[in-house]
Amino acid sequence: MVLLTLAVILWGAYVRASGSGAGCGSSWPTCNGEVIPRSRSVQTIIEFTHRATSGVDFLAVLAQWLWARRLFPAGGWVRRAAGASMVLMVTEALVGAGLVLFELVAGDTSVARAVWTAVHLTNTFLLVASLTLTAFWSSAGEPGGFRKMQGAAWLGVGALVGTLLLGVSGAITALGDTLFQSKTLLDGLRQDLSPTAHFLVKLRVLHPVIGLLVCGYLLSSIGRLLGNEAGPLEKKLGLLSGALFVTQVGVGFVNLGLLAPIPLQIVHLLMADLVWMALVLLVVSSLSQVRR
Fold first, then answer.
1. Which of 228, 222, 227, 253 is nearest to 240 (CA)?
2. 136 touches 237 (CB < 8 A)
3. What is the Cα–Cα distance from 83 to 46, expressed in whole angstroms?
4. Is the pTM of this model over 0.85?
């Protein structure tokens, strides 16, 4: 389930990066007013494929929710995570529909599109978190409860919030890179610092700065979480989270230097999702009480 959703997310990024968001026009859920579009344009095929795979993913999450209700007790954490996944999948579809119906796609450079992009990324991250926890708890066992929040735990939650904000800034930066492409790195920097530049261009410079700040905070938070009371699982997740985040920062700067080619944008987004998943599991596991 998580892998299917990740594939849909990455294809959605390709839809945006390739400028194919208006491939089905402003109609939804149909494509240019048709259930199966007759148009064979590349943009239509790309956008229709994204809608079709999103529909399959929606049905899969629905099946997961029904499966969880059948196999796990009411009030259990698997049921809760599966239920949250279903709700977030519905809101994910609604946000996607809003982007199309309000024509916040293709060459649109409005503030509204930036806001919807931020909302879309936030909902997507929450969906990935709930799906990850559903899979984890259904295989490793549900927690018996959660410990009281204390200093290190609050640092972990702060790392989650910081990572989410970094993801939002990255989504808006990717939007700016798509709409306002630069010929060279120097040309891009000049655009970023120009007082007459579009707001999406001006915001691009913030993402790497936020990335470095969040990286430092996240690594220090992981160090606190991996104290003397951390178990083997938490230590593995902590090392994985840190390694993934450092790698992600490296990929980000390569992406910047190469002027954000589409394949590297996809890799960058995949890394962001993997960092998020590992960090969610680390924070939740560090707070979980083992069910006897």
1. 222
2. no
3. 30
4. yes
